[in-house]
Amino acid sequence: MPKMTHNLKQTPFLKIKTMKVDIQKTVNADGNIILESSVALKTRPHRFTQRLIHWAKKTPNKIFIAQKDAQGQWQSLTYSQTLQKVETIAQHLLQTNLSPERPLAILSENSIEHGLIALAALHIGLPYSPIAPAYSLKSTDFDKLKHTINLLTPGLIFVQDGKQYGKALEAVAGDIDIVAVNNPLSHHTHFSKWLNPPQGFDGLMDIIGLMVVRNRFKTIEPDTIAKILFTSGSTGLPKGVINTHGNITTNWQQITQIFPFMQNGGLTFIDWLPWNHVFGGNHNFGLTLFNGGSLYIDEGNPTPRGIHKTIENLRYIAPTMYCNVPKGFEELIPHLKADKALCEHFFSQLKLLFYAGAGMPQHVWDALEQLAYETTGKRVLISTGLGMTEASPSCMFNTHFGSFPSMLGTPVAGMSLKLVPNGDKMEVRFRAPNVTSGYWRNPEATAKAFDTEGYYCTGDALKFVDENDPNQGMIFDGRIAEDFKLDTGTWVSVGVLKAKFITAGKGLIQDVAITGHDRSFLGAIVFPELNFCKKLARLSDSADLTTVINDPSVKSALQGVLNAFAKHSTGSSTLIKRAVFADFTLSIDKGEITDKGSINQRAILKNHADYVERIYEKTLQPTVLEVQKDVFA
């Protein structure tokens, strides 16, 4: 392995071809700025499963999807096998109560069967909705699940395990038909029956059924609804975002043009990201299908327990592109550092590291670059962009080598990006063929989501790296709705401040809620990264939250972060004066945490107002830490 003997920033990159960046900038008379790429969006199929047919003919024996069975053995399906099963399952779906007004609802983690039934519905133009497993398995009142099912009015519910989802089904299913893979109850249909054609006379029904399926496929138009994806949102109950076939296939083409290495089987994924979320479902699962790649389902996740499953899978699969949330990368790094063989295998085919869902702390970014260099002698491109469920998901990508964590890059081909002044910030809005037409059965929310020119209003703020050169890209500048003023009238950019404070923690802080609305100074309710803190305090894995946050070494570490952060503050809007560890568990039922694991700042401050008051007590409370006075001496 090469040794770190010089400045890492001088180390060359593993070069991959990326799309030419040529952004045209127009400033309108009203002060709005329009950014568009001069690169033309290429033609693409408008049916979700069109490329499944293509690859089943071109590379019939290539693995499309694989997953470990209960015995830990990899089971896989080729493209030709997948198409055959999809067409068979589609015949059964045509005999159910499903329709464009009664979609398929899926209650399941990622699985081969989940993928097959979803593709079968898409193949015959029936919409489906993969619902976050947390709504069924982590909720106690099932309010979000009830809301989604009542809004969807599904004609059929698919579950991976009838017993596991039993309580949730009792709460919401009513007389809706249910098909289950494992542990079906007496009134459930066993999914295995759908892997064979419906019974008929000497195969005649199978022939007729296939003809009907293939004719239904031909009726799919770009505006045919493919998916209804529920977003947690910052307030209220989840909204169902409509993704059409045209929305999704357009975005696949946009992304593939940016990273051409994906084409013709260039993608090998090992991935845990849930398919009920647009990152895992549209992006990773979909790009694999679009480009004829292979997707290996990782049953692990970025937790101290789940990461070990991921590590074992990475010993088997060498990805060409590895996608994760920043927390996932952070959990992975110690294992790559400790295991030379694992690290060499991980980087052996890798062309791109891609993160989304949250900002990446600088120490995580630096560690990934160092590991790549020590293993290969080169750095690897680390990228992100700006995406959302409403854009299927991608609007912007960073293709700059040697970039930095908050860089979002430039608009994809075919995208019109509008920047609208909002106070001292610029709100970003999007209009393109990959952007949704609105929300499922929610005309009021749909009307509010778009401006008079048809641009989707994101509520995100961006700023230029260089206002005179839009090709240099844009940086995330926070969520406008989260920002607030101190009692002096000074605006606080919450999103940017949170990201910087988490980065300053260097692994100590999992997340943070910023306080200070109409107050004289800023405070923070800190959610510790438990695994990091337990190692810091030399506590056992079984140590509870109260023990962890009361440990002197953990409190001392947070005090150090507060002091160091204060030294670099530029005024009251960036100085976090006091902080307190949260000793409560976030509730998905109360909307404090989304199904993808990010916190809802507004809900936390509302539901835990006592913590806010504790921070602002005149007499410093024992559990509250404050920047030490000698910091500014």
Short description:
The protein has 20 helices and 29 strands. Helix 13 (362-376) links the parallel strand 15 and strand 16.
Short key terms for the protein model shown above:
633 residues, alpha/beta, Rossmann fold, 5-stranded parallel beta sheet, 29 strands, disordered N terminus
Low-confidence stretches: 1-6
Largest sheet: 9 strands, antiparallel
Beginning-to-end CA distance, first to last residue = 45 Å
* Spatial shape: globular
Per DSSP, what share of the residues sits in E-state strands of 2 or more residues?
A: 15-25%
> What integer value in Å does the Rg equal?
25 Å
Number of separate strands? 29
Major beta sheet, strand line-up: 1-2-20-21-22-23-19-18-17
Relative helix content: 25-40%
Task: Describe what this molecule looks like in 3D.
The protein contains 20 helices and 29 strands. With 633 residues, it is α/β, with parallel strands linked by helices. Among the domains are: 78-220, Rossmann fold, CATH 3.40.50; 483-632, no CATH class. The strands form seven sheets. Strands 1-2-20-21-22-23-19-18-17 form a nine-stranded antiparallel sheet. A hairpin with a 6-residue loop joins strand 17 and strand 18 (394-397). The protein is globular, with a radius of gyration of 25 Å. Mean pLDDT is 93; it is low at 1-6.
What's the layout of helices and strands?
Blueprint: E1 23-27, E2 33-37, H1 50-58, E3 63-68, E4 74-78, H2 79-93, E5 104-107, H3 112-123, E6 128-131, H4 134-137, H5 143-152, E7 156-161, H6 166-172, E8 177-182, E9 189-190, H7 204-218, E10 225-231, E11 239-244, H8 245-258, E12 268-271, H9 278-291, E13 294-297, H10 306-316, E14 321-324, H11 326-338, H12 340-347, E15 352-355, H13 362-376, E16 381-383, E17 385-387, E18 394-397, E19 407-411, E20 416-422, E21 425-431, H14 443-449, E22 456-464, E23 474-479, E24 484-485, E25 491-492, H15 494-504, E26 509-515, E27 522-528, H16 530-537, H17 545-550, H18 552-567, E28 576-581, H19 601-607, H20 609-615, E29 624-626
Parallel strand pairs: 3-13, 5-6, 5-7, 7-8, 8-9, 12-13, 14-15, 15-16, 27-28
Antiparallel strand pairs: 1-2, 2-20, 3-4, 10-11, 17-18, 18-19, 19-23, 20-21, 21-22, 22-23, 24-25, 26-27, 28-29
Helix pairs in contact: 1-2, 2-3, 2-7, 8-9, 11-12, 11-13, 12-13, 19-20
